[in-house]
Predict the 3D structure of the following.
Amino acid sequence: MEQVMESKHPEFAFFGGKIIPISDAGVDIRTNALQYGTAVFEGIRSYWAEAEKKNYVFRMEDHYKRFFDSCKIMMINIKYSINELCNITKDLLKKEGYEEDSYIRPYAYNSGLDLGPKLIKNDQDIFIYTIPLGEYLNLSKPIKVCISSWMRIPDNCIPPRAKVAGSYVNAALQKTEALLGGYEEAITLSSDGQHVSEGSAMNIFMVKNGKLITPPTYNDILEGVTRNTIFELVKNELDLSIIERQIDRTELYTADELFFCGTGAQVSSIGNVDGRTVGDGKMGELTKKIQNIYFKIVKNEIKKYSHWCTEV
Ligand code: PMP
């Protein structure tokens, strides 16, 4: 947060169909989405490639595809195409003129003022803003996490595969519990309380005996774009495959390596779970390799993945 307050950015937002000063973008206190969380959003990163003096937005189209999926689930109609949203995002970033990494937040919401939570017969709108964003989780050393006493929401309650604004109450409870307990992040168990699901806003991977394992989609995870990137890079660059299977809580205690991944989190090593040291407590070899390759890919340094990097 300090970073945002110190910076002159953001100066602009896409709001009401045009790019305007962000200080002029605001909603009525009666807005349905503000009252009931009836909105969906995305989180996208743009990376500053210092050597080239260029900004690259990472997997922008894939994020907007998930945005449309979230909208479909939540019955929000967007009057722009994916291509138009990508162009608006590029225009917004050009106007900001970042020379640092940034984060893009598209938000589609029920903008009507009617009382009552419902997804139909509402006005709907979209806004986009950006902020400078460095590390979201500490990348320099493995972080300390706990298993949250708050479990992940099931698909038949608030679908975790959609990025629904209101569902982040679940994430906020997890993260707050972790911070109050002296941890940096939380891992939640699936809605049946039996298996590892994910972090408050990131997916999780485990390394055990040279095998890379991650929870399956049916354990109430958000199907992360970064998770998918890890699948691709591990297959292509490390000739390893990933096992998607349920993970028990205590498997985390005896894992050789653990890491989180996400647009915000990037690739972040976990060094301690519930007071148990993971491996030798240092960042694991495989995690380090994946993190290195990931940062090369997002900065368009490996041409094979250039189609994922949109120049601003
Ligand atoms: N899970 C949750 C709950 C999230 O909010 C995020 C961040 N979007 C992720 C996982 C990671 O998803 P992605 O890699 O697409 O950012």
Observations:
- The first strand starts at residue 12 and ends at 15.
- Residues 143-298 form a domain with the D-amino Acid Aminotransferase; Chain A, domain 2 fold (CATH 3.20.10.10).
- The CA atoms of residues 297 and 305 lie 6 Å apart.
- The chain has two domains: 12-132, 143-298.
